[in-house]
Amino acid sequence: MITILVACGSGVATSTLAADEVKAVCSQYNITSYKINKCSMSELSSEITNADVVLTTNNYKGEIDKPHMSVAGFITGINEDALRKKLGELLTGLIKS
Description:
Layout: E1 2-8, H1 13-28, E2 34-40, H2 44-47, E3 53-56, E4 68-70, H3 72-76, H4 80-96
Parallel strand pairs: 1-2, 1-3, 3-4
Helix pairs in contact: 1-4
């Protein structure tokens, strides 16, 4: 089971949009064993211990000792296809390791 943490400014609106896109990517890559948690950027440092991978919708300046990538493209619509591919490969790699 992969635990995916999606963080946005408030932990509500954009993280929900991003989480829906993450679910679509998981489906596209036949990833069925995952859980998505959402939080605000201010909660990220305390929530990160429970995650296998961290996805953020805006810039995060702190240290993240887990696989991390920005999923802002899911919100802006910029380079969504490339982002889906990169995320799918990242999650697939986590399953295999």
